[in-house]
Write a structure and sequence with these properties.
- 70% of the residues lie in helices and 1% in strands.
- It is an all-alpha fold.
- It has one domain: Amino acid/polyamine transporter I, CATH 1.20.1740.10.
- Helix 5 packs across helix 13.
Length: 451
Protein backbone atom coordinates (compact mmCIF):
# COMPACT_ATOMS: atom_id res chain seq x y z
CA UNK A 1 0.00 0.00 0.00
CA UNK A 2 1.36 3.40 -0.93
CA UNK A 3 1.08 6.70 0.98
CA UNK A 4 -2.32 7.45 -0.52
CA UNK A 5 -3.77 4.27 0.96
CA UNK A 6 -3.81 2.28 -2.29
CA UNK A 7 -3.63 -1.47 -2.79
CA UNK A 8 -4.88 -3.30 -5.88
CA UNK A 9 -8.41 -2.22 -6.75
CA UNK A 10 -8.85 -0.17 -3.58
CA UNK A 11 -8.24 3.56 -4.13
CA UNK A 12 -8.76 5.18 -0.75
CA UNK A 13 -8.75 8.68 0.76
CA UNK A 14 -7.32 9.41 4.18
CA UNK A 15 -9.99 11.71 5.62
CA UNK A 16 -10.76 10.46 9.16
CA UNK A 17 -8.94 12.40 11.91
CA UNK A 18 -8.35 11.81 15.63
CA UNK A 19 -11.57 13.37 16.96
CA UNK A 20 -13.78 11.48 14.54
CA UNK A 21 -11.86 8.23 15.14
CA UNK A 22 -12.31 8.53 18.92
CA UNK A 23 -16.08 8.50 18.51
CA UNK A 24 -16.01 5.80 15.84
CA UNK A 25 -14.15 3.73 18.46
CA UNK A 26 -16.73 4.75 21.07
CA UNK A 27 -19.46 3.28 18.88
CA UNK A 28 -17.53 0.20 17.76
CA UNK A 29 -17.05 -0.79 21.41
CA UNK A 30 -19.71 0.82 23.59
CA UNK A 31 -22.32 3.38 22.57
CA UNK A 32 -23.02 4.39 26.17
CA UNK A 33 -24.49 2.59 29.18
CA UNK A 34 -27.45 1.21 27.22
CA UNK A 35 -27.75 -2.55 27.73
CA UNK A 36 -26.12 -2.59 31.17
CA UNK A 37 -29.51 -2.70 32.90
CA UNK A 38 -29.67 -6.39 32.07
CA UNK A 39 -26.24 -6.96 33.62
CA UNK A 40 -27.37 -5.43 36.93
CA UNK A 41 -30.62 -7.40 37.04
CA UNK A 42 -28.80 -10.66 36.13
CA UNK A 43 -25.90 -10.58 38.58
CA UNK A 44 -26.69 -7.92 41.19
CA UNK A 45 -25.40 -4.35 41.61
CA UNK A 46 -22.13 -5.06 43.42
CA UNK A 47 -20.96 -7.73 41.01
CA UNK A 48 -22.05 -5.64 38.02
CA UNK A 49 -19.98 -2.67 39.19
CA UNK A 50 -16.99 -4.87 40.02
CA UNK A 51 -17.04 -6.56 36.62
CA UNK A 52 -17.42 -3.26 34.75
CA UNK A 53 -14.45 -1.86 36.70
CA UNK A 54 -12.17 -4.91 36.41
CA UNK A 55 -12.68 -5.74 32.73
CA UNK A 56 -10.98 -2.50 31.57
CA UNK A 57 -7.89 -3.48 33.61
CA UNK A 58 -7.57 -7.17 32.70
CA UNK A 59 -9.05 -7.07 29.19
CA UNK A 60 -9.29 -3.59 27.68
CA UNK A 61 -5.90 -2.17 28.68
CA UNK A 62 -3.82 -5.13 27.39
CA UNK A 63 -5.91 -5.27 24.22
CA UNK A 64 -5.63 -1.54 23.55
CA UNK A 65 -1.86 -1.53 24.07
CA UNK A 66 -1.29 -4.49 21.77
CA UNK A 67 -3.72 -3.24 19.12
CA UNK A 68 -2.12 0.20 19.33
CA UNK A 69 1.29 -1.22 18.41
CA UNK A 70 -0.12 -3.33 15.56
CA UNK A 71 -2.10 -0.40 14.17
CA UNK A 72 0.99 1.81 14.35
CA UNK A 73 3.22 -0.89 12.85
CA UNK A 74 0.98 -1.75 9.87
CA UNK A 75 -1.49 1.12 9.23
CA UNK A 76 -3.18 -0.55 6.25
CA UNK A 77 -6.77 -0.89 5.04
CA UNK A 78 -8.13 -4.15 6.38
CA UNK A 79 -6.42 -3.69 9.76
CA UNK A 80 -6.39 -6.94 11.70
CA UNK A 81 -6.88 -9.00 8.52
CA UNK A 82 -3.66 -7.52 7.09
CA UNK A 83 -1.77 -7.98 10.36
CA UNK A 84 -2.56 -11.70 10.49
CA UNK A 85 -1.80 -12.04 6.77
CA UNK A 86 1.64 -10.50 7.23
CA UNK A 87 2.42 -12.82 10.14
CA UNK A 88 0.78 -16.12 9.16
CA UNK A 89 -0.31 -15.95 5.51
CA UNK A 90 -3.66 -15.90 3.68
CA UNK A 91 -5.26 -18.98 5.29
CA UNK A 92 -5.09 -17.60 8.82
CA UNK A 93 -5.94 -14.10 7.64
CA UNK A 94 -9.13 -15.51 6.15
CA UNK A 95 -9.96 -17.32 9.40
CA UNK A 96 -9.54 -14.02 11.23
CA UNK A 97 -11.90 -12.28 8.80
CA UNK A 98 -14.32 -15.22 8.92
CA UNK A 99 -14.53 -15.12 12.72
CA UNK A 100 -15.12 -11.37 12.52
CA UNK A 101 -18.03 -11.82 10.15
CA UNK A 102 -19.57 -14.54 12.32
CA UNK A 103 -19.66 -12.38 15.43
CA UNK A 104 -20.72 -9.35 13.39
CA UNK A 105 -23.92 -11.19 12.47
CA UNK A 106 -24.79 -11.37 16.17
CA UNK A 107 -23.79 -7.76 16.82
CA UNK A 108 -25.55 -6.23 13.87
CA UNK A 109 -28.81 -8.08 14.55
CA UNK A 110 -28.93 -6.64 18.07
CA UNK A 111 -28.72 -2.93 17.24
CA UNK A 112 -31.91 -2.67 15.15
CA UNK A 113 -33.72 -4.31 18.08
CA UNK A 114 -32.29 -1.72 20.48
CA UNK A 115 -33.28 1.03 18.05
CA UNK A 116 -36.91 -0.15 18.02
CA UNK A 117 -36.83 -0.72 21.78
CA UNK A 118 -35.96 2.89 22.59
CA UNK A 119 -38.12 4.26 19.82
CA UNK A 120 -41.06 2.54 21.53
CA UNK A 121 -40.65 5.00 24.42
CA UNK A 122 -42.13 7.64 22.09
CA UNK A 123 -44.41 5.49 19.91
CA UNK A 124 -45.51 2.66 22.18
CA UNK A 125 -44.79 -1.03 21.44
CA UNK A 126 -44.36 -1.71 17.73
CA UNK A 127 -46.07 -4.68 16.02
CA UNK A 128 -43.59 -7.33 14.82
CA UNK A 129 -43.88 -6.43 11.13
CA UNK A 130 -43.64 -2.72 11.80
CA UNK A 131 -40.64 -3.30 14.06
CA UNK A 132 -38.79 -5.07 11.25
CA UNK A 133 -39.59 -2.25 8.82
CA UNK A 134 -38.25 0.23 11.36
CA UNK A 135 -35.11 -1.91 11.68
CA UNK A 136 -34.68 -1.88 7.90
CA UNK A 137 -35.10 1.91 7.85
CA UNK A 138 -32.34 2.19 10.47
CA UNK A 139 -30.03 -0.18 8.56
CA UNK A 140 -30.40 1.64 5.26
CA UNK A 141 -30.21 5.06 6.88
CA UNK A 142 -26.79 4.05 8.23
CA UNK A 143 -25.91 2.66 4.81
CA UNK A 144 -26.61 6.03 3.16
CA UNK A 145 -24.19 7.72 5.58
CA UNK A 146 -21.58 5.01 4.96
CA UNK A 147 -21.80 5.43 1.21
CA UNK A 148 -20.59 8.99 1.66
CA UNK A 149 -17.31 7.78 3.16
CA UNK A 150 -15.40 7.45 6.45
CA UNK A 151 -15.36 11.18 7.27
CA UNK A 152 -19.18 11.59 7.38
CA UNK A 153 -19.41 8.44 9.53
CA UNK A 154 -16.87 10.02 11.87
CA UNK A 155 -18.76 13.29 12.24
CA UNK A 156 -22.09 11.48 12.67
CA UNK A 157 -20.42 9.48 15.46
CA UNK A 158 -19.17 12.67 17.14
CA UNK A 159 -22.63 14.26 17.14
CA UNK A 160 -24.37 11.13 18.44
CA UNK A 161 -21.64 10.47 21.01
CA UNK A 162 -21.81 13.94 22.53
CA UNK A 163 -25.61 13.69 22.77
CA UNK A 164 -25.48 10.25 24.42
CA UNK A 165 -22.70 11.08 26.89
CA UNK A 166 -24.34 14.42 27.70
CA UNK A 167 -27.60 12.69 28.62
CA UNK A 168 -25.93 10.19 30.96
CA UNK A 169 -23.80 12.92 32.53
CA UNK A 170 -26.93 14.98 33.19
CA UNK A 171 -28.63 11.97 34.83
CA UNK A 172 -25.56 11.32 37.00
CA UNK A 173 -25.43 14.92 38.25
CA UNK A 174 -29.21 15.20 38.77
CA UNK A 175 -29.24 11.92 40.74
CA UNK A 176 -26.92 13.26 43.47
CA UNK A 177 -29.73 14.55 45.76
CA UNK A 178 -31.48 11.14 45.53
CA UNK A 179 -28.46 9.02 46.47
CA UNK A 180 -29.47 7.15 49.63
CA UNK A 181 -27.43 3.94 49.75
CA UNK A 182 -24.22 2.32 48.57
CA UNK A 183 -24.56 1.39 44.89
CA UNK A 184 -22.84 -2.00 45.38
CA UNK A 185 -25.34 -3.39 47.91
CA UNK A 186 -26.32 -6.21 47.64
CA UNK A 187 -23.21 -7.57 45.99
CA UNK A 188 -24.90 -10.49 44.20
CA UNK A 189 -28.47 -11.22 43.17
CA UNK A 190 -30.10 -13.14 46.05
CA UNK A 191 -30.71 -16.83 45.36
CA UNK A 192 -28.53 -16.98 42.26
CA UNK A 193 -25.89 -19.62 41.49
CA UNK A 194 -22.44 -18.02 41.91
CA UNK A 195 -20.91 -19.96 38.98
CA UNK A 196 -23.78 -19.30 36.56
CA UNK A 197 -24.00 -15.66 37.64
CA UNK A 198 -20.27 -15.02 37.23
CA UNK A 199 -20.14 -16.72 33.83
CA UNK A 200 -23.08 -14.76 32.44
CA UNK A 201 -21.92 -11.53 34.06
CA UNK A 202 -18.42 -11.80 32.62
CA UNK A 203 -19.82 -12.50 29.16
CA UNK A 204 -22.09 -9.44 29.28
CA UNK A 205 -19.36 -7.20 30.71
CA UNK A 206 -16.86 -8.34 28.08
CA UNK A 207 -19.42 -7.84 25.32
CA UNK A 208 -19.80 -4.24 26.45
CA UNK A 209 -16.04 -3.65 26.16
CA UNK A 210 -14.92 -5.62 23.08
CA UNK A 211 -14.07 -4.09 19.72
CA UNK A 212 -10.93 -1.95 20.06
CA UNK A 213 -9.52 -3.42 16.86
CA UNK A 214 -12.70 -2.89 14.80
CA UNK A 215 -11.83 0.55 13.48
CA UNK A 216 -8.43 -0.71 12.28
CA UNK A 217 -10.11 -2.00 9.11
CA UNK A 218 -10.37 1.61 7.87
CA UNK A 219 -6.75 2.55 8.60
CA UNK A 220 -6.24 3.23 4.91
CA UNK A 221 -8.79 6.05 5.36
CA UNK A 222 -7.32 7.56 8.55
CA UNK A 223 -5.06 10.60 8.42
CA UNK A 224 -1.54 9.67 9.65
CA UNK A 225 -2.98 6.34 10.83
CA UNK A 226 0.22 5.11 12.50
CA UNK A 227 0.06 7.94 15.03
CA UNK A 228 -3.67 8.66 15.05
CA UNK A 229 -4.90 5.17 15.97
CA UNK A 230 -2.85 4.81 19.22
CA UNK A 231 -3.68 8.43 20.12
CA UNK A 232 -7.40 7.80 19.64
CA UNK A 233 -7.18 4.63 21.76
CA UNK A 234 -5.61 6.61 24.61
CA UNK A 235 -8.65 8.93 24.63
CA UNK A 236 -11.39 6.41 23.88
CA UNK A 237 -10.50 3.78 26.52
CA UNK A 238 -11.04 6.03 29.58
CA UNK A 239 -14.01 7.71 27.86
CA UNK A 240 -15.79 4.38 27.39
CA UNK A 241 -14.97 3.17 30.92
CA UNK A 242 -16.25 6.37 32.52
CA UNK A 243 -19.28 6.28 30.23
CA UNK A 244 -20.29 3.03 31.91
CA UNK A 245 -19.21 3.39 35.53
CA UNK A 246 -20.39 6.96 36.24
CA UNK A 247 -24.06 6.58 35.21
CA UNK A 248 -24.39 3.00 36.52
CA UNK A 249 -22.96 3.90 39.93
CA UNK A 250 -24.99 7.11 40.23
CA UNK A 251 -28.28 5.49 39.19
CA UNK A 252 -27.77 2.47 41.47
CA UNK A 253 -27.21 4.76 44.47
CA UNK A 254 -30.46 6.60 43.73
CA UNK A 255 -32.79 3.76 42.66
CA UNK A 256 -33.94 0.26 43.64
CA UNK A 257 -31.72 -2.15 41.67
CA UNK A 258 -34.48 -4.80 41.56
CA UNK A 259 -36.47 -2.54 39.21
CA UNK A 260 -33.71 -2.52 36.57
CA UNK A 261 -34.78 -4.12 33.29
CA UNK A 262 -33.33 -4.25 29.78
CA UNK A 263 -34.18 -1.08 27.86
CA UNK A 264 -35.27 0.84 30.99
CA UNK A 265 -32.70 3.65 31.12
CA UNK A 266 -35.38 6.32 30.47
CA UNK A 267 -37.40 5.00 33.43
CA UNK A 268 -34.23 4.85 35.55
CA UNK A 269 -33.44 8.46 34.65
CA UNK A 270 -36.90 9.49 35.84
CA UNK A 271 -36.54 7.47 39.07
CA UNK A 272 -33.00 8.67 39.82
CA UNK A 273 -33.82 12.36 39.28
CA UNK A 274 -37.61 12.84 39.66
CA UNK A 275 -37.32 16.64 39.66
CA UNK A 276 -35.78 16.52 36.18
CA UNK A 277 -37.36 13.32 34.91
CA UNK A 278 -39.62 15.09 32.43
CA UNK A 279 -36.53 16.33 30.58
CA UNK A 280 -34.00 13.57 31.25
CA UNK A 281 -36.15 10.54 30.41
CA UNK A 282 -36.90 11.67 26.81
CA UNK A 283 -33.27 12.78 26.41
CA UNK A 284 -31.97 9.33 27.44
CA UNK A 285 -34.61 7.57 25.30
CA UNK A 286 -33.68 9.62 22.24
CA UNK A 287 -30.04 8.95 23.08
CA UNK A 288 -30.85 5.22 22.95
CA UNK A 289 -32.31 5.61 19.47
CA UNK A 290 -29.28 7.59 18.28
CA UNK A 291 -26.85 5.22 19.99
CA UNK A 292 -28.28 2.15 18.24
CA UNK A 293 -28.13 3.96 14.91
CA UNK A 294 -24.58 5.20 15.51
CA UNK A 295 -23.44 1.74 16.67
CA UNK A 296 -24.70 0.19 13.46
CA UNK A 297 -23.30 3.08 11.42
CA UNK A 298 -19.76 2.81 12.84
CA UNK A 299 -19.67 -0.98 12.73
CA UNK A 300 -20.94 -1.07 9.16
CA UNK A 301 -17.96 1.14 8.30
CA UNK A 302 -15.60 -1.33 10.00
CA UNK A 303 -17.11 -4.64 8.95
CA UNK A 304 -17.72 -3.70 5.31
CA UNK A 305 -13.97 -3.29 4.73
CA UNK A 306 -13.32 -6.98 5.36
CA UNK A 307 -15.09 -8.22 2.19
CA UNK A 308 -13.47 -5.34 0.32
CA UNK A 309 -9.93 -6.39 1.23
CA UNK A 310 -10.76 -10.07 0.72
CA UNK A 311 -11.98 -9.17 -2.77
CA UNK A 312 -8.73 -7.26 -3.28
CA UNK A 313 -6.94 -10.53 -2.45
CA UNK A 314 -8.98 -12.53 -4.96
CA UNK A 315 -11.14 -14.42 -2.45
CA UNK A 316 -14.36 -12.61 -3.32
CA UNK A 317 -15.68 -10.99 -6.53
CA UNK A 318 -13.30 -8.16 -7.51
CA UNK A 319 -16.21 -5.71 -7.84
CA UNK A 320 -16.40 -5.60 -4.02
CA UNK A 321 -12.95 -3.95 -3.98
CA UNK A 322 -13.93 -1.15 -6.36
CA UNK A 323 -14.08 2.31 -4.81
CA UNK A 324 -16.01 5.39 -5.90
CA UNK A 325 -14.80 8.98 -6.20
CA UNK A 326 -14.96 9.36 -2.39
CA UNK A 327 -12.68 6.34 -1.87
CA UNK A 328 -15.62 4.27 -0.53
CA UNK A 329 -15.94 0.56 -1.44
CA UNK A 330 -19.59 1.14 -2.35
CA UNK A 331 -20.45 -2.40 -3.41
CA UNK A 332 -18.89 -3.91 -0.28
CA UNK A 333 -20.96 -1.54 1.88
CA UNK A 334 -24.15 -2.41 -0.02
CA UNK A 335 -23.44 -6.15 0.15
CA UNK A 336 -22.86 -5.93 3.91
CA UNK A 337 -26.08 -3.95 4.38
CA UNK A 338 -28.08 -6.61 2.48
CA UNK A 339 -26.65 -9.41 4.64
CA UNK A 340 -27.38 -7.54 7.86
CA UNK A 341 -30.92 -6.74 6.68
CA UNK A 342 -31.59 -10.47 6.36
CA UNK A 343 -30.03 -11.35 9.70
CA UNK A 344 -32.01 -8.61 11.47
CA UNK A 345 -34.86 -11.16 11.37
CA UNK A 346 -32.89 -13.70 13.42
CA UNK A 347 -33.23 -13.63 17.24
CA UNK A 348 -29.63 -13.58 18.52
CA UNK A 349 -30.35 -12.40 22.06
CA UNK A 350 -28.97 -15.56 23.73
CA UNK A 351 -25.66 -15.61 21.86
CA UNK A 352 -23.65 -13.12 23.91
CA UNK A 353 -21.32 -15.93 25.01
CA UNK A 354 -20.77 -17.02 21.39
CA UNK A 355 -20.13 -13.42 20.36
CA UNK A 356 -17.47 -12.97 23.03
CA UNK A 357 -15.76 -16.29 22.27
CA UNK A 358 -15.65 -15.68 18.51
CA UNK A 359 -14.21 -12.21 19.04
CA UNK A 360 -11.61 -13.50 21.46
CA UNK A 361 -10.53 -16.27 19.05
CA UNK A 362 -10.00 -13.65 16.35
CA UNK A 363 -8.08 -11.57 18.88
CA UNK A 364 -5.81 -14.56 19.64
CA UNK A 365 -4.70 -14.53 16.01
CA UNK A 366 -4.03 -10.78 16.17
CA UNK A 367 -2.01 -11.01 19.38
CA UNK A 368 -0.15 -13.99 17.94
CA UNK A 369 0.60 -11.89 14.85
CA UNK A 370 2.25 -9.22 16.99
CA UNK A 371 4.43 -11.76 18.82
CA UNK A 372 5.39 -13.43 15.52
CA UNK A 373 6.21 -10.12 13.81
CA UNK A 374 8.23 -8.93 16.80
CA UNK A 375 10.29 -12.12 16.55
CA UNK A 376 10.59 -12.42 12.76
CA UNK A 377 10.75 -8.75 11.72
CA UNK A 378 12.33 -6.83 14.63
CA UNK A 379 12.90 -3.80 12.42
CA UNK A 380 9.19 -3.49 11.61
CA UNK A 381 7.87 -0.76 13.89
CA UNK A 382 5.64 2.30 13.89
CA UNK A 383 5.56 5.54 15.91
CA UNK A 384 4.00 3.70 18.88
CA UNK A 385 5.79 0.68 20.34
CA UNK A 386 5.37 -0.97 23.73
CA UNK A 387 8.50 -0.71 25.90
CA UNK A 388 8.54 -4.51 26.27
CA UNK A 389 10.51 -7.32 24.69
CA UNK A 390 8.84 -10.10 22.74
CA UNK A 391 8.38 -12.20 25.89
CA UNK A 392 6.81 -9.27 27.69
CA UNK A 393 4.38 -8.76 24.81
CA UNK A 394 3.50 -12.47 24.94
CA UNK A 395 2.79 -12.27 28.68
CA UNK A 396 0.64 -9.16 28.19
CA UNK A 397 -1.30 -10.95 25.43
CA UNK A 398 -1.88 -13.93 27.73
CA UNK A 399 -3.77 -11.88 30.34
CA UNK A 400 -7.02 -11.37 28.38
CA UNK A 401 -6.76 -14.90 26.96
CA UNK A 402 -6.76 -16.34 30.50
CA UNK A 403 -9.90 -14.33 31.18
CA UNK A 404 -11.45 -15.79 28.02
CA UNK A 405 -10.65 -19.34 29.17
CA UNK A 406 -12.36 -18.56 32.46
CA UNK A 407 -15.48 -17.30 30.67
CA UNK A 408 -15.67 -20.46 28.53
CA UNK A 409 -15.23 -22.71 31.58
CA UNK A 410 -17.85 -20.90 33.66
CA UNK A 411 -20.27 -20.84 30.73
CA UNK A 412 -19.94 -24.60 30.17
CA UNK A 413 -20.33 -25.43 33.86
CA UNK A 414 -23.24 -23.20 34.77
CA UNK A 415 -23.98 -20.53 32.20
CA UNK A 416 -27.55 -20.17 31.02
CA UNK A 417 -26.54 -20.01 27.35
CA UNK A 418 -23.06 -21.53 27.53
CA UNK A 419 -23.09 -25.08 26.12
CA UNK A 420 -25.25 -24.55 23.03
CA UNK A 421 -23.77 -21.12 22.28
CA UNK A 422 -20.25 -22.53 22.42
CA UNK A 423 -21.41 -25.49 20.32
CA UNK A 424 -22.55 -23.09 17.60
CA UNK A 425 -19.26 -21.26 17.94
CA UNK A 426 -17.33 -24.49 17.39
CA UNK A 427 -19.41 -25.27 14.29
CA UNK A 428 -18.66 -21.83 12.85
CA UNK A 429 -14.93 -22.19 13.53
CA UNK A 430 -14.80 -25.61 11.85
CA UNK A 431 -16.64 -24.24 8.81
CA UNK A 432 -14.01 -21.51 8.26
CA UNK A 433 -11.32 -23.71 6.61
CA UNK A 434 -13.96 -25.35 4.41
CA UNK A 435 -15.16 -21.97 3.12
CA UNK A 436 -11.58 -20.82 2.54
CA UNK A 437 -10.71 -23.89 0.45
CA UNK A 438 -13.78 -23.37 -1.70
CA UNK A 439 -13.08 -19.68 -2.27
CA UNK A 440 -9.36 -20.19 -2.85
CA UNK A 441 -10.03 -22.62 -5.72
CA UNK A 442 -10.89 -19.68 -7.96
CA UNK A 443 -8.34 -17.44 -9.60
CA UNK A 444 -6.36 -15.74 -6.85
CA UNK A 445 -4.20 -12.69 -7.13
CA UNK A 446 -0.41 -13.05 -6.71
CA UNK A 447 -0.85 -11.38 -3.29
CA UNK A 448 -3.16 -14.19 -2.14
CA UNK A 449 -0.69 -16.87 -3.26
CA UNK A 450 2.15 -15.24 -1.35
CA UNK A 451 3.32 -17.23 1.72
Amino acid sequence: MDASGRRGGLQLRRSLGTFGLVFVMFFTTSGGAYGTEGLVSSVGPGMALLLMALVPVVWVLPEALLIGELASMLPEEGGYYRWVHRAFGPFWAFQNGWLTWLYSLVDMAIYPVLFAQYLAYFTGPLPRGVGWLVSLAMIWGATVVNLRGARPVGWASVAAGLFVLGGFLAVSVAAIPQMSHAPWVPFARPGSSPVATLGLGLSIALWNYIGWDNASTVEGEITDAGRTYPRALAIAVPLVSAGYLVPIGSALAATDWSTWREGHWPQLARAAAPAWGGVLAPWVALGGVLSALALFNALLLAYSRIPAVMADDGLLPPSLAQTDERGTPRRAVLAAAVVYSVFALVPFGGLVVADVVLYALALCLEFGALVALRHREPGLRGPFRLPLGTRGVAVLAAVPMVLLAGVIGLSLVGGEYGPWAIGLTAAGVVLGPVVYRRLARGEATPYLRAP
